[in-house]
Amino acid sequence: MKWKANASRTIWIIGASSGIGLALSEQLLKQGHKVAMSARRTGKLGELAGEYPDQECVAPCDVTDRESVQKAVQRVQKCFGHVDTLIFNAGICEYIDDGDVKASVVEKVINTNFVGLANVIEAAKPLLKAHSGVQIAAVSSSAAFLPLPRAEAYGASKAAVSYFMHTLRLAMQKKGISVNVICPGFVKTPLTDQNDFDMPCLISAEEAAEQIIAGLQRDKREIHFPHRFTRFLKLLSALPLGLQQRLTGSLVKA
User: Fold this and answer.
1) Which fold has domain 10-248?
2) Where is the Ketoreductase domain positioned along the sequence (predicted)?
3) For 68-96, what is each residue's pLDDT tens digit?
4) Looking at the predicted structure, is the pLDDT value of residue 104 above 70?
5) In the chain, what are the domain boundaries?
6) Nearest to 87 by CA among 246, 226, 254, 215
7) In this predicted model, what pLDDT tens digit does every residue of 27-74 receive, in sequence order?
8) Residues 237, 146: contact at Cβ < 8 Å?
């Protein structure tokens, strides 16, 4: 459901301590929305909350720990009673070099990026069922569009997020709940600052937040950006696999 003009929403952002999540929190608070902010490390969130004491709620949360997630839900429920828009932005990235697969690395990435999403959605049911017009959004990645070098674990986790959310929509739309999938390209964040390769069409976290908010306001099923990059990846994904992988093999170099 599209956002009503000039109406305040109650929004819960999981993974709000830096990068896209922090930029989303700042912009949504400035627009007058009530925002619950969750992360494992909440120091920066406390500073931001002090600027908007009547609009915010800080709820510490480790998405890989179901007890922690449940406590965060209880905190948000105590603050606001319900949530109009849930945005799952928690995520980590670990690369696999030269095909040297380590199951522990894959498990860590999948548990945070994908299982963490399921943990949050399951626990958040009491916050989401009280009224209509609810949105559940998750930050996937343009890496989910096609296989990219070194992204065996990260790309697989984000592809799982996209598939899960697009499928969840089939059931949730019958209940009046919207499901939105967010697929950014390269965004300058503490996470991507660790990358040791060129990042085409890199944008700021603030630009990403603007794109996400605009997409959620229009209730777009898939929000991908920047278009000059994500449309290129979508085009590549439509090519025969052999040609596609010859091209993507040189797109991101170690």
Assistant:
1) Rossmann fold (3.40.50)
2) 9-185
3) 999 999 999 999 999 999 999 999 999 99
4) yes
5) 10-248
6) 215
7) 999 999 999 999 998 877 877 777 888 899 999 999 999 999 999 999
8) yes
Give the pLDDT confidence of 198-247 residue by residue, as tens digits.
778 889 999 999 999 999 999 999 999 999 999 999 999 999 999 999 88
Structure tokens at 181: 């999938």
Distance CA 187, CA 201 (A): 9
Q: Is the pTM of this model over 0.70?
A: yes
Residues 6+ apart with CB under 8 A from 212: 20, 24, 87, 137, 139, 182, 223
Give one word for 19, left, alpha or beta, with left for phi > 0 and alpha for psi -120 to 50. Answer: left
pLDDT at 254 over 60: no
Q: Is the Cα dihedral 128, 177, 18, 57 positive or negative?
A: negative
